[in-house]
Amino acid sequence: LPGKGKGVIAKRDIERGELIIREKPLFVVPPQTTSSPSAFIARSVSQLTRRQQDAFLNLSYVNFPKYLDPKRHPDEVALAIFQTNAVSAGEGVGIFPRMARLNHGCSSAFNVVYTWREREGALVIHALQSIRKGEELLTTYTNTKRPRDQRRAYLEEHYGFHCTCKVCSLGPEQSRASDIRLLAISEAYDRFATWGNREIGGAEAIALVKKIWTLEDEEGYLSERGRLAADAAWVAASHSDASAAREWAQTAIEWYTYEIGGDSEELEEMQVVVARPESHRAWGSRERRSVGGPLKE
């Protein structure tokens, strides 16, 4: 792809929520190892099949020490490839060559999302938005709920490219408006999190969820809504608001279907809450009160 190297293009129309890739890792690096990271990765690569090694070594990398010769330091090359392409895989970090071909987009620009499934030992990637034939599939490499300058600086430092996605390419006024929305979303998330230590009440927490939802609609940011709705269901259940807990769980089911799949554990948990809100593990852990359900379309 011009200016990007390799990427993934849709060969047909893809529906929102469609499973695009299910991929097991070539290997996973645990949180702690008894050897150095480079030695552990080199050993892991040496244990792969030839085809798997080729898939790994064909991945791009950045931030390789300039004073080293890649041909004479293959272990350092392997480390650089891992650092550039690895993603979370449960408690560890894994390499997924097919997923690694997805390029990055910020905010409303990315259209696919990935999730690790512990019980399957695999990464799944779903279409967050409908994608038309010929469009590029984009995921996100970082939390993009921050201003353009900060996003670009992070991406240049860690991945070696200057982002020109459709959000980063907005004109000055539109970009400022986007930055303001993204900062407001981030701040609202931070405020919402304080419900956990009782700094705010349930009604304010739900009001913040609705604020986030509205701002994200304006921005076109559609990711993480299943988790947000599930968190709102938690708040509602904690305050023994059965109606709100059920409604938020139904909303979580809808968005989990798009983001992580209709066969995910998280969605199954929300189905139980819809059927019987009182079964939620947080039920009645806070004072009883009405907190409110989702915004109506």
TrEMBL record:
Residues 1-142 form the SET domain. This is SET domain-containing protein. It comes from the Eukaryota. Gene3D superfamilies: SET domain, Tetratricopeptide repeat domain. It holds the Pfam family SET. Residues 278-297 are annotated as: Disordered. PANTHER family: SET DOMAIN-CONTAINING PROTEIN 5. It comes from Crucibulum laeve.
